[in-house]
# Entry
Amino acid sequence: MRILLLGATGATGRSTLARLLADGHEVTALVRDPAKLPVLSRLRTVPGDARSVDDVGEAMRGADATVSCLGTGLRYRADDLILRTTEAVVDASDRTGVRRVVMLSAFGVGDTRRSAGWPMRQAYRLMAPVFDDKARGEALLRASALDWTIAYAVTLTNGARRGGVRVDDMDDVRIVPGVPFIARRDVADQLVALAVDGGRFRRGVLLRYG
# Structure
């Protein structure tokens, strides 16, 4: 498949890029600085801003699906990144006809917070501006006519891949106790599977270990 990857230079984005290329897919990465990515077979880097509908639309042409790993990292301030990039993705998808979008989010954003245990709810207070931005972007995606899936990952780590990931519809999730973690490499595997294998259209799913 031909995949447009947003956020390819981030920690989870790099793992997702590696998984896509290892599986034989053709990837276009829209990045501000192409020099941050190596020159690899089946990887096309396009300079641009993911908040620009023109830049996203140009990179999206010819793609079968879009995967977004965009995030603010450890910054706890709101800068409307997810809202603005989602606006660009939705508009560019309408222009190009690329309907499939898989977006990485965080457990605790929007209505998913009600499924978090007490320790996580306290931690989310620090993330409130970032999570609010994600929620606004996700609301825009949910209101679109696209074939979207939003993947809510529990707390991310840089640990080794271990497998055994559960992919549950958020509507079926009750309380997730404690402070669960998941390796970025395992999350990347699931993002690729969602984009390539399809299914879970117009659904939010929770990624955690079983």
